[in-house]
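In the previous chapter we treated chains in isolation. Here, by contrast, the input contains two separate entities that must be folded as one system, with a combined length of 229 residues.
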Amino acid sequence: EIVMTQSPATLSVSPGERATLSCRASQSVSGNLAWYQQKPGQAPRLLIYGASTRATGIPARFSGSGSGTEFTLTISSLQSEDFAVYYCQQYDNWPPLTFGGGTKVEIK
Amino acid sequence: QVQLQESGPGLVKPSETLSLTCAVSGYSISSGYYWGWIRQPPGKGLEWIGVIYHSGTTYDNPSLKSRVSISVDTSKNQFSLKLSSVTAADTAVYYCARKYGSGSVVAFDIWGQGTMVTVSS
């Protein structure tokens, strides 16, 4: 099973600033990585797949990069609605599909 | 648009079987796509349970030790989850979701609102 590790667990950022979230895989997943955003009481929302392709309707301030074992989700200028928990998920070698533990982006 | 809605008991006794259904509207399951279940214990992260294709092919999480059964009912346009021998560790919000597209991307782009299931006597 591929283990996904996200860092940091919590990221404190001021509105308008850039946020950089990391996701590391225990072995290479090539570019087979997705990112989700989850707000309290809501289902996750797909942001990125293929490590860098934005899903339908996702604003351009969200960008993904990386391949192999190291991935990054960048939010270029945080808006109030972006404060949430973010999860990465690999789909290179499954079953099982595996998620990272999440990064909470909170208001500084 | 495509919508998913989970339903089932909110309370299940230990050692019994958890049963949930996901009703799909706005799309015919028999037309394709993989349909999945994901859960989230209170205050914790996401855990993938399994997926089913409209033809009935399934894949599930080995960590659940063969307690999972996923089925599809195309006549009712819904799919279901059964998880046997539940314990308190199975207490979670259970989500149903649709896999994105028909290609190699195995991510979930449409989700139900989730349903909380508590395992307790």
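The first strand of chain A starts at residue 4 and ends at 7. The two ends of chain A are 35 Å apart (CA to CA). Compare these points with the single-chain example from earlier in the chapter.
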